Amino acid sequence: MSWFKATAAVSAVILGVTASFTAMLPTSHRTEAAIAVIEKKNIEEAIKTAIQTAKILNTKKLDVSML
What we know:
Layout: H1 2-24, H2 40-66
Helix pairs in contact: 1-2
């Protein structure tokens, strides 16, 4: 049963990270009143967040596997 919980947790985190990156992909719609701004700092922060999430996931996976 614990492997099921670990698999579910891993799947949920992967789905969340994938959805986040998918939502950040540029789209091909026209912007009329807005100015599209892509800042290097925002991209760096998103990458740092993804790396930190992966580290947390790995730690949780190891904790669950030890149970």
